[in-house]
Design goal:
heterodimer; A: mainly alpha; MetI-like fold; 3 domains; two-stranded antiparallel ribbon; B: mainly alpha; 12 helices
C-alpha cells in the first residue's frame, strides 16, 4: 500500500521538484517532504490529484452517455406510466370524479357533468378534445367518436340548465358506466394502464383480470419471445460447443484458419446474412429448388421454410452462433489438457473424464456465451421481422409497430420497459450464479 | 490431441471421425449462406437459384448488371452516401470520447469505477429495440428527432462500449512504468500521452474504432427510429428492399458488404498480431 502511494507521489511531483522530494527524511517527528510539509499530507494530495485526473478523463463520455442514452431510457420508463392528458385537458373533472363510485351510481351526478362540460368547452377552444378522445379510444373503443360528436354539439348547450340530460340527449353513451370509469381511471397523472394493456390485463369493476382469451396478444408474444430465445440459445450452445472444442485442441495454424469460418459471419453485415437466408429458404429459393431438382419434393408442394417460426429460428441461430463460439473458445483455450489425461489415467471413463473434469471448467464460457446470445435474441427485431412472417415475430416488432405506426407510445414504452426489466433480471441472476466479469468479447 | 494415438481402438476411431463430421457440418452451416449469395449476385437471370448454365460455368450466365444497378440507381447511391456520412463521424466521436475515458478508467485511483463502467457499457447491454424506442421518444422531446445529428449521436453512444472494452483490454497489458519514465524525463502529460501511450495502445484504438464503425454502418433499428427518410442508410435500404420485394441488387450489395467484412477481418488480424508482438516485445 505504502509502496504504491510513494510511487504515485513520485510520478506526480517529479516534474516540478526534480528528483529530491522522495528522499527527504526527518529522523524526528513526522516525515517531511522537500518543502517542509508532512509527507502524509502530500501523499493525500497526490492521490486526490490522481483521482481528479482520472475522473476528468472519464467525465466527457459519462455525460455523453447520460444524455444520449441513459436519459432516453429513463424517459421511456417515465412515459410508460405518464398519463397527464386527462388531468391536463379535464382538470376540473379530474378533481371531482374521484368521489364518484361506480358501485353506488351507474352514472356520475350533475356536479361531475357540469365540471366536465366546462372542461370540455375549454378543450374544444384549445382543440384538445379530439386528441384526448383518440388517446382514450385506446382504452375504450368508441370514445373518440363520442367526443367528436359531443364537440360539435356543445356550443348549443345551455349552461344555466342541468347539463346531465343535455349530454344524454346528444348520445346515450354518456350514460354508459364504462365511459366514465375510463375517464376516472385516467384522471391521475400516473397510470398503470399501459402495463395492464401490455400484460393483457384489464381493470374492471371486480378488480384486475386477464382479458378474454381471443384478445390476448402480448402475453403470447412475450411467451413466444422467451421460448424461442431459449431454444435459439440451446441450439447455439449445442453447435458451438463441439466447434469451440475442436478449435481449442487443433494446432494454432489450422485453428486460426478454421477461425476465419467463424469470424467471417461474425463480421458480415446482419442484413447481408438475413438476405442470404431469405434467398436460401424462400419458396423459389436455393434449398427448395435443389430439392425439387433432385426429386425429393414436388414442384407444387414446396417446403414452407420461411415466414414462420422455423425461418426465424434457423436464421437467428446462424446469426448468433459466433457469439457463443467466441467466448467458449476463449475459455477452452486456457484449459490445460493434462487434467483430462490425469482423470483418464486415474481410471475415469472417457465420459466421466469429460463430464466431471473438462465440462465444469467450461462453465464460465457457457454462461458468458449463453447470456450474450439470449439477451441479443430477446431484443432482436430485424431478422424476425424479415424472415418470421406472422408466427415468427418477437415482442420487439410490436414495440416497433406501436412506436412507428400506431403511435401508441405509452404502450410501446411499457412493452419496452417490461422487456428491459426482463433483461435486467437475467443479468442479475447471471451475476449471482456466474459473475458478470466473465463476459468477454472474443 | 489433433491426431489419434496409436493405441486407439475402433470406438475411438468412430468417435474421432463422427466428431469431425459434426464439426464440418456446423462450419458448413456457418459459412454456406454467405458463400451462396456471392455467385447468385452475378446471375444474369432474375432468379434466386443457380441456373443450369451457371452450374456449367458458361460465361453468358453471369453478369454484372446488378452491380451496375447498384452504382447507377439514385436510391442506392443516396443510401451509400448517407452511410458514409454517418458512420465515420459517429466513429470519430465514439473513439475520441472512448479512448480518453478508457485511460481514465484504467487508472487504479478512479473513484466508483464499477458503477461508472456499468453506465458506460450499458448501450451494449440493453437490447437495441429498447434503446431505439427510448431514443425515439427522448430525441422527439428535445426536438432533434429526424436530424442527421440525432442519428450520429445515437450511433456514437452505441459504439463507445466497444471502444472502452478493447482499449481497457489493451491497457491492462500496458506497462505503467513507461509513463513514469517519460514523466521522469520531463515530458508533460499531453506529450506523454501522444508519444508513449498512444502508439502502444493504437492497435486497441483501431480495433475499437472498427467495432464502432461496423456497429454504426450495419445498424438499422436506431436509424429507422431516430432518423428520417432523408437519412436512409445502406442497411435501411436493404431492409426496405427485403421487406417488400427481394431483388438481386440486394444480393450485390450484400456481396459488397461481405467484401468489406473480409477487409475488416484482415485489418483486425494484422492489428492483433502487431499488438501481440508489441506485448511480447519482439518489435522495437
Amino acid at each position: 500500500m505504502r509502496a504504491t502511494a510513494v510511487r504515485s507521489l513520485g510520478f506526480n511531483k517529479r516534474k516540478s521538484r526534480g528528483f529530491m522530494s522522495d528522499q527527504v527524511m526527518n529522523s524526528s517527528g513526522p516525515m517531511l517532504a522537500a518543502d517542509g510539509t508532512p509527507l502524509k499530507a502530500k501523499l493525500a494530495r497526490a492521490e486526490r490529484t490522481q483521482r481528479i485526473r482520472a475522473a476528468v478523463l472519464v467525465m466527457p463520455l459519462f455525460l455523453f452517455i447520460l444524455i444520449t442514452f441513459i436519459a432516453p431510457i429513463f424517459n421511456m420508463l417515465y412515459r410508460s406510466v405518464e398519463n397527464k392528458i386527462v388531468t391536463d385537458t379535464l382538470p376540473k373533472t379530474a378533481a371531482v370524479i374521484g368521489e364518484w363510485d361506480s358501485g353506488i351510481d351507474a352514472v356520475p351526478d350533475e356536479a361531475v357533468f357540469s365540471a366536465f362540460a366546462e372542461d370540455f368547452k375549454a378543450a374544444i377552444a384549445a382543440r384538445e378534445h379530439t386528441k384526448l378522445g383518440s388517446r382514450l379510444n385506446y382504452e375504450k373503443a368508441g370514445i373518440a367518436s363520442l367526443f367528436r360528436k359531443t364537440g360539435r354539439r356543445l356550443k348549443k348547450f345551455d349552461f344555466d340548465q342541468p347539463l346531465k340530460p343535455q349530454f344524454l340527449a346528444v348520445d346515450d353513451k354518456w350514460g354508459d358506466t364504462e365511459i366514465w370509469q375510463t375517464i376516472q381511471q385516467f384522471a391521475h397523472p400516473l397510470t398503470m394502464g399501459y402495463y395492464y394493456a401490455a400484460l393483457d390485463l384489464e381493470a374492471g369493476p371486480d378488480g384486475v383480470n386477464l382479458v378474454a382469451e381471443n384478445q390476448r396478444q402480448y402475453l403470447r408474444l412475450f411467451w413466444r419471445t422467451l421460448w424461442m430465445s431459449l431454444l435459439i440459445t440451446g441450439l447455439c450452445f449445442s453447435m458451438a460447443y463441439p466447434v469451440a472444442y475442436l478449435l481449442s485442441i487443433l494446432p494454432m495454424k489450422s485453428s486460426n484458419l478454421l477461425m476465419i469460418l467463424v469470424l467471417l459471419p461474425f463480421w458480415t453485415s446482419l442484413l447481408a446474412r438475413t438476405s442470404a437466408w431469405k434467398v436460401l429458404l424462400q419458396r423459389e429459393g436455393v434449398i427448395n429448388e435443389t430439392l425439387v431438382q433432385l426429386g425429393f419434393v414436388a414442384t407444387d408442394n414446396r417446403l414452407e421454410l420461411i415466414n414462420n417460426t422455423f425461418g426465424t429460428i434457423t436464421a437467428m441461430t446462424h446469426i448468433l452462433l459466433p457469439f457463443m463460439i467466441l467466448p467458449l473458445f476463449s475459455v477452452m483455450r486456457t484449459i490445460p489438457p493434462s487434467y483430462v489425461r490425469a482423470a483418464r489415467s486415474l481410471g475415469a471413463t472417457e465420459f466421466t473424464a469429460f463430464w466431471r473434469v473438462y465440462f465444469p471448467q467450461t462453465i464460465s464460457g457457457i454462461g458468458a456465451g449463453s447470456i450474450l446470445v439470449f439477451i441479443l435474441s430477446i431484443g432482436y427485431y430485424i431478422t424476425p421481422e424479415l424472415v418470421g412472417g406472422r408466427t415468427g415475430v418477437f415482442i420487439s416488432s410490436r414495440i416497433a409497430y406501436h412506436v412507428l405506426t400506431s403511435l401508441n407510445w405509452g404502450l410501446a414504452a411499457s412493452l419496452g420497459s417490461l422487456l428491459l426489466i426482463g433483461v435486467l433480471v437475467v443479468y442479475w441472476l447471471y451475476d449471482r450464479i456466474v459473475g458478470i466479469d466473465n463476459v468477454k468479447l472474443g | 490431441m489433433s491426431g489419434l494415438p496409436s493405441y486407439a481402438n475402433l470406438g475411438n476411431h468412430l468417435w474421432f471421425y463422427a466428431f469431425r463430421t459434426i464439426c464440418f457440418l456446423i462450419f458448413f452451416f456457418l459459412i454456406f449462406p454467405i458463400l451462396v449469395i456471392i455467385p447468385l449476385s452475378f446471375n444474369a437471370q432474375p432468379l434466386f437459384t443457380f441456373t443450369p448454365e451457371m452450374l456449367t460455368l458458361k460465361p453468358e450466365a453471369f453478369s454484372l448488371m446488378h452491380y451496375q444497378d447498384f452504382f447507377t440507381n439514385a436510391d442506392w447511391q443516396r443510401a451509400l452516401q448517407n452511410s458514409f456520412k454517418i458512420a465515420p463521424v459517429a466513429t470519430v466521436l465514439s473513439v475520441t470520447l472512448g479512448t480518453v475515458a478508457a485511460i481514465g478508467l484504467s487508472n487504479p485511483k478512479m473513484p466508483f469505477r464499477k458503477a461508472i463502467t456499468a453506465v458506460l457499457i450499458s448501450p451494449m447491454i440493453v437490447p437495441l429495440i429498447i434503446s431505439a424506442a427510448g431514443m425515439y421518444f427522448f430525441y422527439a422531446n428535445i426536438g432533434i428527432s429526424g436530424t442527421y445529428w440525432a442519428v450520429v449521436l445515437a450511433h456514437a453512444a452505441l459504439g463507445t462500449p466497444f471502444v472502452i472494452i478493447t482499449i481497457t483490454a489493451t491497457l491492462s497489458g500496458f506497462d505503467q512504468s513507461l509513463v513514469r519514465a517519460a514523466a521522469n524525463l520531463g515530458a508533460n502529460p499531453v506529450r506523454t500521452f501522444f508519444s508513449i501511450q498512444m502508439p502502444l495502445i493504437l492497435p486497441g484504438v483501431i480495433s475499437g474504432g472498427l467495432f464502432a464503425f461496423i456497429t454504426s454502418f450495419d445498424e438499422v433499428v436506431v436509424v429507422k427510429f431516430v432518423g428520417s427518410a432523408s437519412q436512409t442508410t445502406l442497411p435501411w435500404q436493404m431492409f426496405t428492399g427485403l421487406r417488400e420485394q427481394i431483388s438481386l441488387t440486394i444480393l450485390a450489395v450484400a456481396t459488397i458488404m461481405v467484401a468489406i467484412s473480409i477487409c475488416l477481418l484482415i485489418t483486425l488480424e494484422i492489428l492483433r498480431r502487431r499488438s501481440e508482438a508489441l506485448r511480447t516485445g519482439r518489435v522495437g
